[in-house]
Specification:
The protein is an alpha/beta fold. It has eleven helices and ten strands. The chain has two domains: 188 residues, Rossmann fold (3-Layer(aba) Sandwich), CATH 3.40.50.1100; 101 residues, Rossmann fold, CATH 3.40.50.1100. The strands form two sheets. A six-stranded mixed β-sheet has the order 1-2-10-7-8-9, with helices on both faces. Strands 5-4-3-6 form a four-stranded parallel β-sheet, with helices on both faces. The radius of gyration is 19 Å and the shape is globular. It binds pyridoxal-5'-phosphate.
Length: 334
């Protein structure tokens, strides 16, 4: 389409990838009524792929294209708990790449169907195996990459384009949207990209700003941050999806994080449900953990503070889990 001369600004997207980013910042009211300060939610659920992972998938793929590691007819491989896979599959569909995703048995049925609907091939791997085990989803992805020419393994845990995407986009957006008034940034931490890419940008604007990571019971991140020790005893199965890790991802920049807070599976699930009912914001399981993290900061917050909590994905991805009474009862959460 040719733009008429009178139209200076393009008012459409040439494909779905152009709709990524610039997500809204929404003030929370009822759920944070006991806090003295202002709390905003950065709604990453409103990206076209319904999560923050759209940003990193686009950044990792476009960087590989620019430096020639990915060319026409290529295959994009990733190990993913679901959201990155969805974003990668969406972008591969637009750009015409084949997409193979390795995931774990913890993935929800909804997420699995979504990935396949976007044309991806999905391989489900066991959950409770060590990362170096040849059966792990990391090892399987790596070995497929080695066996296919013109393929890339995105590897969001160690690919620093993950952090860079949030440094370039999410950080500046939040700074602009709060007019530089943000005092605390809090987000769930898995690969570390959302917390640390955004956090690094924000801390560069204001060195006094606090960066708080939300971790899970069963993950090594909090203890590693506090002691420098990788403690295998911290690792055990848990329900909270995409939060916490059993490895130390290169995208977690421990130096810029002020503290990690661990949130229990059950409380996170209830908070996600409460967000929908009290704020009308239907977001995922990790958002429940993130808002509980905010509530636990109560003693250190003052009336002038401006907290931004990032909600990573959309609640529609959890209708068979957190938003299902049956699932909640099966977990003994109700
Ligand atoms: C729903 C959800 N929340 C939180 C996270 C953690 O974000 P990050 O990997 O950027 O640390 C992820 C990552 O997969 C996610 O999918």
């Amino acid at each position: 389409m040719t733009l008429p001369n009178t139209l200076a600004v393009k008012s459409w997207c040439d494909d779905i990838t152009e709709a990524i980013g610039n997500t809204p910042l929404i003030r929370l009211n009822r759920i944070v009524a006991d806090l003295p300060c202002t709390v905003f939610a950065k709604l990453e659920s409103l990206n076209p792929g319904l999560s923050a992972k759209d940003r990193i998938a686009l950044s990792m793929i476009e960087t590989a294209e620019k430096d020639g590691r990915l060319t026409e007819g290529g295959t994009v491989i990733e190990s993913t708990s679901g959201n990155t896979g969805f974003s990668v599959a969406m972008i591969c569909a637009v750009k015409g790449y084949s997409c193979v995703l390795f995931t774990t048995a913890k993935i929800s049925d909804e997420k699995l169907i979504a990935l396949k609907s976007l044309g991806a091939k999905v391989v489900v791997c066991p959950t409770n195996v060590k990362p170096k085990d040849p059966k792990s989803y990391y090892s399987r992805a790596q070995s497929l990459h080695e066996s296919i020419e013109n393929s890339i393994y995105l590897n969001q845990y160690f690919n620093l384009d993950n952090t860079a995407a949030h440094y370039k986009s999410t950080g500046p957006e939040i700074w602009r949207q709060t007019q530089g008034k943000i005092t605390h940034y809090i987000a769930a931490c898995g690969t570390g990209g959302t917390l640390c890419g955004t956090g690094k940008y924000l801390k560069e604007q204001n060195e006094y700003l606090k960066i708080i990571g939300v971790d899970a019971y069963g993950s090594v991140l909090k203890k590693y941050h506090e002691t420098g020790e990788f403690d295998e005893k911290e690792i055990y199965p848990y329900k909270l999806e995409a939060v916490g890790k059993n490895i130390i991802p290169a995208n977690v920049n421990f130096d810029i994080v002020d503290k990690f807070i661990k949130i229990e599976d059950k409380i996170a699930a209830h908070r996600a449900r409460e967000l929908a009912k009290s704020e009308g914001i239907l977001v995922g399981y990790s958002a429940g953990a993130a808002i509980e993290g905010v509530l636990r900061l109560k003693e250190e917050l003052t009336k002038d503070d401006v907290v931004v909590v990032l909600f990573s994905d959309h609640g529609s991805k959890y209708f068979g889990k957190v938003f299902s009474d049956d699932w909640m009862k099966e977990q003994k959460f109700m």
